[in-house]
Amino acid sequence: MSRLPVKQVVVTLLFVLMISVPFAMKKADEIMNPLFTGNMEEVIERYGFFLEEITEQAGFRHVHRRATVDEKLHHILPQISSVGASVSIVDFNRNGLPDIYLTSSEFGTLNSLYKNNGDGTFVNVAEEMGVADLNIPGLGASMGAIWGDYNNSGFEDLFVYRWGRPELFRNENGTGFTRVTEGSGLPAHINANTAVWLDYNNNGYLDLFVGGYYHEDVDLFNLSDTRMMPDSYEYATNGGLNYLFENQGDGTFLDVSERVGLHASRRWTLAAAAADLNDSGYQDIILANDYGVDEIFINMGGEYFFNTGQEAGLGFVPKSGMSVGIGDILNQGLYSIYITNISEAGVLMQGNNLWVPGRGGTEQVPRYRNLAGSMGVEIGDWAYAGKFVDLNNNGYLDLYVANGYVSDTPDTDYWYDYARVVGGNRNVIIDANNWPAMNGRTFSGYQANRIWMNDGAGRFQEVARNVGGELRKDSRSVAYADLFGDGSLDLVIASQNQGVTVYKNHADPQHNWISFELTGTKSNRSAIGTTILLYSGERVTKKYVSGGDTFSSQSQRPVHFGLGSSDHVDRVEIRWTSGWIQTVYQPGINQLHRITESDEPIASLGQ
Amino acid sequence: MLKDLIIPKTLIGPLLISGVVIAAHLSFGVLDGWNKFAIALVAAMGTELVFHRIVTGKWRDLSSAYISGNSAGILVRSPMLWPFALTAAISIASKYVFRFRNTHLWNPTNFGIVVMLMIASDSMAVLSVQWGSNMWAMGMIWVIGLIVISKVRLFHICAVYVASFIFFAWIRTLITGDLFLAEIAPLTGPMYQLFVLFMITDPKTTVSTRNGQMLVAFLIAMTEMFFRLGEAVYAPFYALFVVGPVALVVDILIRERRERREKE
């Protein structure tokens, strides 16, 4: 054998080795994450929880229907009306049981309010409560809803954001709702896809952040111009404005958006969350923007916000931000931020972002690094809500990610046409007329939701199929609540143009838990924005009362901590938005604690 | 003094592509990240060093690998690092593995990308959206690119390809009924700019005669039409992957025949 062929053989072998790398990686992944098919007890023993679908037996019949927009957009209707299925959880009648509100979008279809009967079943009371008929021509199509006690009455009020006029409903002591939109100061028209209750100035009244998606001048149901699509796939500058409505304490709201610095950009905001990222005592606002970079607006003492997306490290690479999840995933007393994006094999691989705080930040602006890849939560699909929730009560936040865009005719695909247009210049992409018709084609549809289980050591493992939770719908919104009072966090998933799905969670009974329902007195009554720090041995876990987060979702108001095998909690520190701090020593475990804000700046219980 | 500054010919390409990348990234953040770009460069140059050493026993200059690394760093889109490195490495390795009459047959980056789309499509994609929302970025790339292309006298390839693409776009509208603007939309994006300016004009993998080059450009556009009718998102890469080596082999054989005849 001459020398040349030997050399050729060597380089050929090296080449073969190279192209074997992806196959080897897939094989290794299969070995490390095998499909496990056991009965419920075996699954619980292995993973610490099992999900049982109970939608029909629990009485849920709600089906979301997409909004039917102007006929000029009918050729791409499924992607224009790709959102609107939302779920928010509230105890609207204060009977101690979480109830569930679900939106639909098509004109004439009804939103649902499922009252918890306390016996494992639910009944839809939306019509008798006056919060069903909200999808009306000329007024708007529901996109989502959030609950907050804006008038500190003790009962949670309802804000429904729409493509159209947003609506505010006052809760009449749990017996019904009164529409109080007129004269409230809310705008006549926004194409909103996200809203969050927060007390931005800590004055004890809940304010309202609303994020605009399509430009507010666009009436999607009566379109004057088809040049209403994003002007860029990655750098769009023609989205809707974002708003902050300051609660005046008299049932009215004042638009302070411009004054506080929220009108600085016109990105296409799809999701928002408000959390105190820098321990300043004030809630900051985190935005997931479609067609652009994500943003963090740091709250400057309740006076104004400044955008620190780039300084914080997450404002560089534009993607398709869909959801903002906040969680202390490593039990270090620090919030990480999970923002979902789009991943479609071979076409668009954005990957989801898990922004973990690290070194290099300042007192005011934390510095984040995207560790989604190294922690194993990067590749979803076309993802929407990415919700942190401790499903097995082991004390570490797991991650539920909703996937799927448009499931239509099987074995068809719109991606080619989509990629053609979004690769084009501004003048092409901005005009809906230039977008090829979808003609019933599937577009990143029939995708399975992900459940990533946190191992507590910095890695997540995908277990959806193994724990009974594989769901292939066009899921949008995910909320959790202890629906049955057994200490397990159950899941409610709203899917676009499809029926709701409810999972009863069977968490390992060997795992302990503790829950806190807070009532503000000096702070807003819903206690939204209040931080809870749980200390147990070496562990410190931080959570907060959320006024809406991820994608069009709001989970139960009580703050729930899984404790794993730990049989005690040393103390719990409650940092109210009023600035007052309350400490509870050695609270009992496996129970819900109802705590009212003390009338002293620093108070202790149970010492 | 500047007048006396002579830039070696081999460095013109690398310097220009570096200029485009830096300007585009600082303006629009076109790269997925400097680390991903860097790993593509390192992998390309490292593979070139190792493979060339194995085959020839010598070290070689890295300007060609540098350009391939740049292309992979720009064109690959992945949240992970390894697809950047692997694309670049496969691109360079292909030059040493697939050879005919002592010349490589595929444009290295084209080969690397197409192979990666076949074996790792769940981990990577190709740049398919535009840079920025303004026309000036697109204009800048066209201007720089055309200057380079004119210097190396390959402008006619770009012109024929673009004209053919537009012609076949019109043919496609007759077949599919889609809007003409939607059919030519990709041409306004950066993926095509890089494809037209830097990939189909690669001197090492283009045929030898001017007429032949124009014919090949036309055939690439025509083949691309069929891939497009089959709704292949990355149709131009597949078209070049198929047409490029066939054209090169035919070109070499024709040249050899001609040389043989001349000798006779």
Task: Provide an overview of this structure.
The complex is a heterodimer of chains A (607) and B (264). Chain A is mostly beta strands. In chain A, 10% of the residues lie in helices and 34% in strands. The longest helix of chain A has 30 residues, at 3-32. Chain A starts with a helix and ends with a strand. The mean pLDDT of chain A is 95. In chain B, strand 2 and strand 3 (103-104) form a beta hairpin. The longest helix of chain B has 29 residues, at 235-263. Chain B starts with 8 loop residues before the first helix and ends with a helix.
What keywords describe this structure?
heterodimer, A: 607 residues, mainly beta, 8-stranded antiparallel β-sheet, 5-stranded mixed β-sheet, 10% helix, globular, B: 264 residues, two-stranded antiparallel sheet
The unreliable regions of chain A are: none
Helix content of chain A: 10-25%
Quaternary organisation of the protein chains:
heterodimer
User: What's the number of helices of chain A?
Assistant: 7
In short:
The complex is a heterodimer of chains A (607) and B (264). By secondary structure, chain A is mainly beta. Chain A is built from 7 helices and 39 strands.
